[in-house]
Amino acid sequence: MKEITVLELRNCPYCRQLERILKDWKDRPELKDVNFRWIDEREHPEISERYAYYYVPSLFDGETKLYEADPSHTEPVMRGILEKQLLGRLGQR
């Protein structure tokens, strides 16, 4: 099973946006064998400090950054980027 690390904050609206997107995509074949490991950066700074990012949510495949939020990203923009970066990468396995 593939593991994708998601760095987040509990009260982050962009993180909740990501949750909605992933929930909508739960039946996508690219995500069939993927486990999303959610890590709150405040609760686990010893883990989050290992990654190079500034904004949350940020998604990593190992050490490879797949997505990093930007305050200008609306939900449709986030979906489009994730479709290309996350689903595209997972579809290539």
Task: Describe the protein in words.
- This protein is α+β, with helices and mostly antiparallel strands.
- The chain has a single domain (2-91), classed as 3-Layer(aba) Sandwich (Glutaredoxin).
- It has helices at 13-24, 45-48, 75-91, and strands at 2-8, 34-40, 58-61, 64-68.
- It has a four-stranded mixed beta sheet with strand order 2-1-3-4.
- A hairpin with a 2-residue loop joins strand 3 and strand 4.
- The termini are close together.
- The relative contact order is 0.24.
Topology of this structure?
Elements: E1 2-8, H1 13-24, E2 34-40, H2 45-48, E3 58-61, E4 64-68, H3 75-91
Parallel strand pairs: 1-2
Antiparallel strand pairs: 1-3, 3-4
Give short descriptive properties of this protein.
93 residues; Glutaredoxin; 4 strands; 25% strand
Helix content: 25-40%
In this structure, how is the largest beta sheet organized? Answer: 4 strands, mixed
| Whole-number mean pLDDT | 94
Strand ordering within the main sheet = 2-1-3-4
Write the CATH architecture name: 3-Layer(aba) Sandwich
Computed over alpha carbons, the radius of gyration is 12 Å
| Shape annotation | globular
- From the N-terminal CA to the C-terminal CA, the straight-line distance is 11 Å
Number of helices: 3
| Proportion of beta-strand residues | 15-25%
Count of domains:
1
Unreliable spans are none
CATH class: Alpha Beta
Total number of beta strands: 4
Name of the CATH homologous superfamily:
Glutaredoxin
Structural class of the secondary elements? alpha+beta
CATH fold category name: Glutaredoxin
Order of helix and strand elements from N to C terminus: EHEHEEH
